[in-house]
Design a protein that fits this description.
Layout: H1 2-19, H2 22-25, H3 33-41, E1 46-51, E2 71-77, H4 81-94, H5 102-117, E3 123-132, H6 135-146, H7 150-153, E4 158-160, E5 165-167, E6 170-173, E7 180-186, E8 188-189, E9 192-193, E10 201-209, E11 215-223, E12 228-229, E13 232-233
Length: about 240
């Protein structure tokens, strides 16, 4: 029996080790460009919402690029540390950090520190960028989001856990050619954390404009057990 256990235990350890995601196995300063992109677009803290059951302005079945019309929303919990680490690492790669002078590295590190530690600890920041392949609707789509305010969205945007539904506290949006907005929520509701270890998921709920008429309601779910980072739920 002892010999059997000696064989099984190392195997289980190795299986767990190889199953771990790269953000659990190495420091963010070692992440590759591909790994940064994964964290920012397809990870426990980032998801894509793609809407394809839409209309274009002339009611045809194709968009102005000849394909099926779509709207894509890229959703990130930017207040989650892994997201900000991936952004800093992308900056390091783009600026060839290893080749910078000591003075340049110091300046970069100072900016990076602001990104890593400068977020308010009492807020949850959800950053959303969006795009469409139908240029006839691009301006309409951006106008819809750029004219929204916190007051207009307070009954349309929520962060929901098992027993908690928190309305948006503040809304920020890019102007002009920028295609992004931010939903900002309190981290506590009625003196209690929005999310606890007992919650299986964290859901973002928001109203979006359709490519045809009217609007729709999105319910984007994030699994809290996957959002663990450094022993805590990162969001």
């Amino acid at each position: 029996m002892k010999k059997t256990l000696c064989l099984i235990i190392p195997f289980l350890f190795l299986a767990t080790l190889f199953a771990a995601d790269f953000w659990e196995k190495k420091e963010y300063k070692e992440w590759t460009q591909k790994e940064c992109t994964k964290v920012l677009t397809e990870s426990p803290w980032a998801q894509k919402l793609e809407l394809t059951n839409v209309q274009v302005m002339d009611n045809s079945k194709t968009s102005t690029d000849g394909g099926q019309p779509y709207i894509r929303y890229w959703i990130q919990f930017r207040s989650a540390l892994p997201i900000r680490q991936a952004m800093v690492r992308q900056g390091q790669i783009a600026n060839k950090y290893e080749t910078l002078s000591a003075e340049q590295k110091q300046a970069f590190d100072k900016q990076a520190e602001g990104m890593l530690t400068g977020f308010p600890e009492d807020s949850v920041v959800v950053f959303v960028s969006y795009e469409t392949n139908d240029r006839n609707r691009d301006q309409e789509l951006s106008r819809w989001w750029q004219t929204k305010t916190t007051e207009l969205l307070k009954n349309q945007v929520y962060l929901t856990a098992t027993n908690t539904k928190v309305p948006i506290a503040r809304y920020a949006v890019g102007q002009g050619a920028e295609r992004w907005f931010q939903f900002i929520f309190p981290r506590e509701a009625d003196g209690k954390p929005v999310v606890t270890p007992q919650d299986k998921s964290l859901k973002l709920e928001f109203t979006y404009p359709s490519m045809g008429m009217g609007s729709g309601q999105a319910f984007q779910q994030f699994k809290t057990e996957k959002m663990i980072f450094n022993g805590n739920i990162a969001f």
